[in-house]
């Protein structure tokens, strides 16, 4: 059946609901180029204000899945698991979690994305390893997972063509942070990528798209239901992104923190967080493990060995790890010190993330070039006690670090007399 796009825009503008035929027609014709960007922009804004019901979101997701190639991972034995985060600051979880899960013999077949704005991208971090190649053919991707049990590559251009077009459009029309479009974007890619089970990390707080736990819960429930509706075992965790995750924000320095964590180092809280996520992923694959059993693979070198195997398989230089764990090498370095004694009660993830981008560690636009050495290394986190003049953080950049940028960091830090603590995992949605 043929429709007029202007009629469909008006229908949603006035609060109507689309049937499957209408959604299929819109996506098919948008990918084909017969529906122009300006009309799809108008539709995205109408959806932003009027929303979509469960049936519409499901139909939109599957229409997007069918807009490109779908990977068939059936040649890989076992239950294949995947993980996705809705984005944050200092989020190097995949770098640790994927090899940790793979070290238990569970195949991890993951496609990741790049960073934009204040959120970091797993691919950018991996590319700070000399020689690392994020590109793999479908056959090469499958073969690597069969051989070593893990692959983390860039999103294939052949998958979910509609999402690639829509996301670029949403990014420049202020329609990114709306649940139906986030859910369909994430789940269409995860479904098309072919894994049997999916862990969704839905971040909430200052540095996340979802600012309230209630909104994060709705998004998590929507995506879990979408996954289950097409036969994928899906679990979502709602995690706190009020402050940066871990101590490193950037690219090469996040690899350093990941390598150290994979070698049995890292804070007890961060290790526990990673282990809890790994426990869920292993359970999705039918392998129940205790937290102590999981932590053991961070301490005995098995998880790190999987990480090294992946680096080698994707062209990276494993002998570069000595340099990767060395201090950052930048032209400018500024230490931020505590102006008074007290406790860190807030470390605003958004402000810290935007500052890292301005230092060169991220992109304001997709065309920007990343400086792998630029970034921020925190010395204190929320709940830590500080004395006057204690080191709180160090800023690294090959651009001059102005007083304005230093003030931006200071504006993101709150020191008070009252000690507070923050949980990492707030809820689990099954």
Automatic annotation (TrEMBL):
Single Gene Ontology MF annotation: uridine phosphorylase activity
Sorted UniProt keywords: Glycosyltransferase, Transferase
Keyword hit for Transferase: yes
EC number assigned by the record: 2.4.2.2
Catalytic activity: 2'-deoxyuridine + phosphate = 2-deoxy-alpha-D-ribose 1-phosphate + uracil; thymidine + phosphate = 2-deoxy-alpha-D-ribose 1-phosphate + thymine; uridine + phosphate = alpha-D-ribose 1-phosphate + uracil
GO BP, sorted A to Z: pyrimidine nucleobase metabolic process; pyrimidine nucleoside metabolic process
Cofactor dependence: K(+)
Segments forming domain Pyrimidine nucleoside phosphorylase C-terminal: 343-416
GO cellular component terms given for this protein: cytosol
Coiled coil regions in record: none
Family statement: Belongs to the thymidine/pyrimidine-nucleoside phosphorylase family.
Purpose of the protein: Catalyzes phosphorolysis of the pyrimidine nucleosides uridine, thymidine and 2'-deoxyuridine with the formation of the corresponding pyrimidine base and ribose-1-phosphate.
Description of how the protein assembles with itself and partners: Homodimer.
Protein name (Swiss-Prot/TrEMBL): Pyrimidine-nucleoside phosphorylase
């Amino acid at each position: 059946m043929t429709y007029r796009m202007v009629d469909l825009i008006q229908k949603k503008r006035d609060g109507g609901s689309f049937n499957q035929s209408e959604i299929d027609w819109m996506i098919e014709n948008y990918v084909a180029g017969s529906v122009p960007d300006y009309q799809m922009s108008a539709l995205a804004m109408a959806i932003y204000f009027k929303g979509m019901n469960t049936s519409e979101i499901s139909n939109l997701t599957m229409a997007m899945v069918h807009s490109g190639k779908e990977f068939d991972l059936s040649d890989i034995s076992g239950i294949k698991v995947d993980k996705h985060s809705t984005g944050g600051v200092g989020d190097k979880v995949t770098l640790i979690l994927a090899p940790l899960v793979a070290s238990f013999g569970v195949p991890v077949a993951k496609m990741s994305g790049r960073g934009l704005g204040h959120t970091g991208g797993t691919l950018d971090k991996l590319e700070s390893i000399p020689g690392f190649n994020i590109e793999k053919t479908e056959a090469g991707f499958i073969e690597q997972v069969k051989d070593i049990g893990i692959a983390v590559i860039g999103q294939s251009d052949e998958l979910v063509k509609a999402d690639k077009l829509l996301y670029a459009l949403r990014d420049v029309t202020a329609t990114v942070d709306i649940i139906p479009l986030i859910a369909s974007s994430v789940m269409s890619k995860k479904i098309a990528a072919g894994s049997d089970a999916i862990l969704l990390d839905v971040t909430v707080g200052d540095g996340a798209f979802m600012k309230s736990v209630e909104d994060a819960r709705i998004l998590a429930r929507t995506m879990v239901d979408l996954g289950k509706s097409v036969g994928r075992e899906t679990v979502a965790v709602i995690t706190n992104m009020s402050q940066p995750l871990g101590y490193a924000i950037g690219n090469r320095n996040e690899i350093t923190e990941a390598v150290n964590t994979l070698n049995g180092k890292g804070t007890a809280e961060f290790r526990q967080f990673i282990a809890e996520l790994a426990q869920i992923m292993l359970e999705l694959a039918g392998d129940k493990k205790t937290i102590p059993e999981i932590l053991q693979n961070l301490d005995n070198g098995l998880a790190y060995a999987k990480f090294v195997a992946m680096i080698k398989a994707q062209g990276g230089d494993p002998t570069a790890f000595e340099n990767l764990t060395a201090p950052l090498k930048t032209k400018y370095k500024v230490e931020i010190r505590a102006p008074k004694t007290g406790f860190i009660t807030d470390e605003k993830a958004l402000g810290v993330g935007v500052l890292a981008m301005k230092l060169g560690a991220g992109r304001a636009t997709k065309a920007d070039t990343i400086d792998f050495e630029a970034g921020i290394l925190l010395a204190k986190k929320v709940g830590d006690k500080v004395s006057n003049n204690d080191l709180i953080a160090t800023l690294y950049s090959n651009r001059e670090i102005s007083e304005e940028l230093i003030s931006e960091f200071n504006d993101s830090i709150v020191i008070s007399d009252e000690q507070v603590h923050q949980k990492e995992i707030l809820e689990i949605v099954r």
